[in-house]
Amino acid sequence: MAAAARTSPRDVFTQAWHAAVGRRGRSLLTAAGVGLGVAATVATLAVTATASGAISDKFDATRATSLTLRWPERVSRPEPGVIMNVTRLNGVEAAGLICEAARDEHRATAVTPQHATGVPTRIGLLAAQPSAFSALRVAPVSGRFFDDGHGTRAEQVVVVDTVAAQALGVSQPGQLIYVDGAPVSVIGVYEAPVGEARMTAAVIMPYQRCLHDSREQPLFGQPMVVVRTALGAADQVAGEARLALYPADPGALEALVPPDLRTFREGVEEDTRALFLGLALVSLIIGALGVSNATLVSVLERRPEIGLRRAIGASRAAVAGQFLVESGLLGLAGGILGTVVAVDAAVAVALVKQWLVVLDPALLGGGPLLGLLVGTAAGAYPAWKASRVEPAASLRAS
Amino acid sequence: MAEPVLEAVGLSRVFAGPPEVHALRDASLSVKGGEMVAVVGASGSGKSTLLNILGLLDKPTSGVLRLGGRDVTTLTERERTRARARAIGFVFQAFHLVPHLDCVRNVMLPLVHQGVPRDVRGHRAEAALGRVGLAHRLTARPGTLSGGEQQRVAVARAIVHDPTLLLCDEPTGNLDSENTATVLELLRELATPGRAVVVITHDQQVRDAADRWVEVRDGRCGSHQSA
Ligand SMILES: Nc1ncnc2c1ncn2[C@@H]1O[C@H](COP(=O)(O)OP(=O)(O)OP(=O)(O)O)[C@@H](O)[C@H]1O
Ligand SMILES: [Mg+2]
Fold first, then answer.
1. Residue limits of the ABC transporter domain (chain B) (predicted)?
2. What are the two backbone dihedrals, phi and then psi, of residue A380, each rounded to the nearest 5 degrees?
């Protein structure tokens, strides 16, 4: 007979396919093992990618549109009108001066102790121009903000954020609190933006309190110019604003990088991600051991089949190939299964958290590929064992 | 008279122990095309050992084996696999059908592992199943067949590639006498000119159906003509 006298790769594949499909229940269980490992890996990668995408989106938007310049030490504090030089600039949407005082528990207090809620909070004290509120994206939730008139008339008015209001027992605008021993009237309450530490748990007075802060030990630090710019204009505005504010020595104005939320959160995230990836890897290894073990058991169980194939002309390589492909197929099935589960999980998390889903296409292809690799690697030893089966011994009547 | 399909001279097989077992000692046998030979003997006398050597599944410790006039004693593992695929068909007591493949796919297996083109495999497998009277059970799984039917599928598989030597180890050992008769009749028909059939058996019915029988005793062969 003029046959090729050897099993073609396509037939090796077909035989493996029939075995995997023909033993469906067992195959599914085996594939599920790999599937869990792949699902854990892909879900970890997908969820962390989506989460960091969400954080950097939020952060980039803030970062690209905000700018803070610190007034030089030992230079007298600027008059409020100076800010007009910045507001005029192209790309500037709002700008204002603010000063920050060191945090102190006793600086701002409730009128009577029983007004306070009891939780001692370190209230921050700020002085700010009205235009700084707009630059910092805050608006009153009740009452109103002070205006330039309050400042020039040196009226004893402040605004507080919701956290400070709670701590100081302020339930509505018009109430009094004590700041530095003197009574002041709270005319408005605002909600501090998330991540704006300066504005959280704070009492804000008109900028003139900072300008005329003529004590031995000044209460307020040097003023800062806060600027809100059009998207992407922050860098360009930084240079021009320095020149406009202090032409004598523009370089003396130090640009403050906003507290980098992203580095902080990513630092935390890197650790969590590494931990989860580690766990995913462990489950992947357990899955691989599962496939390996199941395939090995199947080789032992199917010794008569192997012996028969060898007797009727299958080479050792053809037998090994069949088991290798079979285990690779189970791995691939597990990989596809796991990826589907993982993507669903990631989308569910993103929906709950209202994040934009970030799915790397490489991950979608990578999950099944990972399963295929794990399955094939796990099948190597059982396949080798199968190729060693002696036909004569395995075909004895059972 | 036809040429000998199979010629074994002075075969011996020692299984290295411990304990060392001399399963075959100086066994000789010659079978011609068209002949059906029964091999009988007590349990443990060496019948299966002889059949494995004749079928190139095992190597003799000493002695010479010729298949179709060619000395196959010194073939490499790979060459033996090819010679097996080409020239020999096996039928076993336990059928050894692959449970997850249907009948046609089981019968096709020798063609698959020999690399016979796909388009002719199906026809040949169906023809072989027709030959054993199972044309109506092509897509059945072996598990759904009776013992007699399963053994007929195994016979179809053993002849689908048209081998010159058909080796059967207790083919009727798991069958009742009615099924035994059917399978025996098949084997008789398959001993056509150019093909020899060797059947190991304990069964008087089988021994009587053969052209002659050979008794293995303590690893040696003695020949007898059938009555
Ligand atoms: N792989 C092996 N290793 C060691 N001894 C073996 C091996 N195979 C067979 N034997 C021994 O060789 C002897 C012959 O065995 P064989 O299987 O050929 O007997 P048999 O005639 O087929 O018996 P039965 O009728 O019970 O099938 C026995 O004593 C057996 O134990
Ligand atoms: Mg035996």
1. 6-227
2. -60, -50
Token readout for A377 is 């690697």
Q: For an interface test with A, which of B49, B84, B91, B112 has the most A Cβ atoms less than 10 Å from its Cβ? A: B112
Say which of B86, B162, B173 has its CB closest to residue A397. Answer: B173
Determine the distance from the C-alpha atom of residue B91 to the mean position of all C-alpha atoms in its chain, rounded to a whole number.
5
Q: Where are the domains of chain B?
A: 34-60+75-225
Q: Is the pLDDT of residue B41 over 50?
A: yes
CA dist., res. A156 & res. A176, Å (int): 10
CATH number for the domain running over B34-60+75-225: 3.40.50.300
The B36-40 sheet, strands edge to edge? B88-92, B165-169, B196-200, B36-40, B212-217, B220-225
Residue A379, CA distances (Å) to A37, A195, A291, A295, A384 in order: 16, 51, 7, 7, 8
From start to end of A279-384, where are the E strands?
none
pLDDT band at A252 (very low <50, low <70, confident <90, very high): confident
Across all residues in chain A, what is the average pLDDT? 84
The pLDDT of residue B172 is above 50? yes
Q: Which two tokens stand for residue A65?
A: 């549109």
Higher pLDDT, B13 or A58: B13
Q: Residue B189 and residue B36: Cα distance in Å, rounded?
A: 10
Predicted model pTM: 0.70
A22 touches chain B (CB under 8 A): yes
* In contact, B170 and B200? CB cutoff 8 Å: yes
Residue numbers in A near B170 (CB within 8 A)? 397
Q: What value does the mean pLDDT of chain B take?
A: 91
Q: What percent of chain A has pLDDT over 90?
A: 32
- DSSP class of residue A220 equals B
ipTM (interface pTM): 0.94
DSSP A27: H
Under 8 Å between Cβ of A358 and A309: no
Q: How far is the CA of B188 from the centre of ligand 2 (A)?
A: 21
Q: How far apart are CA A353 and CA A307, in angstroms?
A: 57
Q: What is the pLDDT of residues A176-235, one digit of tens each?
A: 888 877 889 999 999 988 767 788 888 999 999 888 887 777 888 889 999 988 877 777
